[in-house]
Amino acid sequence: MATGLIVFLISWPMCKGMVPQNKLYGARYTLSYKSDEHWYAINSYTGNLMRYWSLAIFFSGLIPLLSPGLFSEYVLFVYAMFPVCLLIPAFQGWRFAKRFDAEWKQEKTPPT
Length: 112
Known about the structure:
There is one protein chain. By secondary structure, the protein is mostly helical. Helices cover 74% and strands 0% of the residues.
């Protein structure tokens, strides 16, 4: 539950465009470093995905507290859900980065 809250708080500045280009924090795909425009668009998109998926982590941790009888059976589900809830937005962010770069190249290419 606390992990979901931490991921939510970490992703908030990303989706609001408050994280400048750096090597420590943010969606650090190779394409993210191509330009500031890339950095902010990719981080905003990935931050929003992380924010939504962090709610799944939060609520999956909250359910055993609300129904203690499920705790032993539910723990495996929670442990399995945590990496999935982080890998899915990372993969979707990477796909967005590729799509954004392709569209950016089309806009920057002069017409012939």
